[in-house]
Design a protein that fits this description.
Blueprint: E1 9-18, E2 25-36, E3 41-47, E4 55-56, E5 61-70, E6 74-85, E7 90-101
Length: 107
């Protein structure tokens, strides 16, 4: 839970990954660069997402919700997913920067 007095802001985000290719893929890992409103950067990386390494069929999608905690009411996230195709060949999906903001902060 967020606590502005303790400089703790909790954000939830939902990601949908759509496989627009012709073969199944698997998400193996993630990397996030989280930047707070003062420019302080935190790197987060690990296997899978929310404890899973999902297989996403051709034409299918995978959705998950997770969270981030930063010290300011405004920040950003960006990163990438480490994936493999049906033949085991690795590739990366870039995640463009998106904003974390307390809803009442920005009109």
């Amino acid at each position: 839970q967020s606590s502005p007095q303790e400089e703790r802001y909790v954000f939830a985000y939902t990601v949908t990954i759509r496989n627009l290719g012709r073969t199944q893929v698997q998400l193996l890992g993630r990397y996030w660069l989280i930047t707070n409103g003062h420019g302080r950067e935190t790197e987060v990386q690990g296997e899978g997402v929310v404890g899973e390494q999902p297989h996403i069929p051709a034409g299918g999608e995978y959705q998950y919700t997770s969270g981030a905690v930063i010290e300011t009411p405004l920040g950003t996230m960006q990163g990438h997913y480490a994936m493999i195709d049906v033949n085991g060949a690795p590739f990366t999906i870039e995640i463009p920067v998106f904003r974390l903001a307390v809803p009442t902060l920005i009109h």
